[in-house]
Amino acid sequence: MKKLISALFVPLALSSGAFAAGSVSFDQKGDLPALSSGIRSDAMAPAAYIPRAAAVKEAPGFCIFNGGSGAPLGGEDAFKAVVRGADAVFAGETHDQAKDHLAQLEALKALGEARGEKIVVGFEMLNMTLQPVLDDYASGKITEEEFLQKADWKNEWGFDFNLYKPLFDFIRAGKLKALALNLPKKVVSKIARVGLDGLSPEERQYLPAEVAITKNEAYIKYIRQSYEGHGKSNSGRTDGADAVPANKQDAGKEKKGMGDFTFENYLAAMCAWNESMGSRLADFINANPGYAGITIAGAGHVIYNAGIPASVAARTSGLHPVSFYPSDAVTCPEAMPAGDAGLADYVWYISHPAPAAGKTK
Fold it and tell me: What b/e sequence results for 269-288 when a residue is b if at least 16 CB atoms lie within 10 Å of its CB, and e otherwise?
């Protein structure tokens, strides 16, 4: 199983993340996951939530390479064949890139051609306590406006809902199931501060019985680079990677690494986050034979298949998974760059628009 987005650019096109009591996201190319403040800062909120009246409607294209062999996949028909043969699809994203979400939609459509209504779509964007609200929206019991209000989308996630709307529209039209995968932000944030053993019984209930700490060396290296680089400011980003101090008392201090967070706890927070989302999907698949699942999440949760894909694999048997990792490319390369090998089962090259003025990529 593998993933979908760019690389440690070195292309670790993984994504940015913010584990925090208020803003949790882990996805963007060129950025390592970051544990950010417990609550979105005033400076971050406008950048992360700028309603876009219309998401870019350009197709993502099908420039896709096998992440293992480096061979080109061969276009739309070949892509559909791969997805149709999968029981679990892991579709990574850069949260504010419209074409990445259109690529996810293509994967969902292809899965729908093979499974009909027997599909569950898992979203990182919603924490598991919001499952009843998501059920009502997916089944058509509440309107989009009601859903956005009840889910507190602006504060819960922050990125423009229009980017995700085509996915939700497809779910509602096809009568598909949907899963809220994420941990409550305060739990991820607390693990980063005090470790798994520091959780209260109430907080621990959101985690699976077993939380495996990854042994994947490439992923650990990736997380360590995030940890050590977290002191650098990324203010104004739209990818959730803003390096906001985790505690108010840390504001204004330039530190190497995570300050009061140890690397051990930082890694544990990432693993608990991945394990919780993976277990949610695995539990559904195990309880519903014949269903296929697709995960909509930041690339940092699927890179090296060390996050959600590994969690699902450990909790299921006989599953046929596939992951896609979207990487930025102005034009389709003649050959897959050597540095992109292993990012996912397939690396999907997509031309992303240049960042807006004043933004860094």
Answer: bbbbbbbbbbbbbbebbeee
CA proximity to 98, closest of 29, 163, 3: 163
- Report the sign of the C-alpha dihedral through residues 32, 164, 293, 142, in that order: positive
Q: How many residues does the chain have?
A: 361
Do the Cβ atoms of 311 and 207 come closer than 8 Å?
no
Q: Compute the distance between CA of residue 217 and CA of residue 225 in angstroms, rounded to an integer.
A: 12
pLDDT tens, position by position, 207-225: 999 999 999 999 999 899 8
Strand partners, 120: 177, 293
Tell me which DSSP letter residue 68 carries. Answer: T
**Highest averaged pLDDT of the listed ranges 39-48, 112-121, 233-242:** 112-121
Task: Report the distance separating Cα 165 and Cα 357, nearest Å.
Answer: 26
Place of tokens 């470790």: 195
Nearest to 309 by CA among 337, 277, 333: 277
Alpha-carbon torsion, ordered 4, 222, 87, 133, to 10 deg: -90
Residue 314's contacts (CB-CB under 8 Å, 6 or more residues apart) are 212, 278, 282
115-124, 250-259, 298-307: which range is least confident on average?
Answer: 250-259
Token digits for 288? 């519903």
CATH 1.10.10.10 fits 7-350, yes or no: no
Structure tokens, 170: 């497809």
Rounded to an integer, what is the distance from CA 312 to the centroid of its chain?
Answer: 15
> What's the predicted TM-score (pTM) here?
0.81
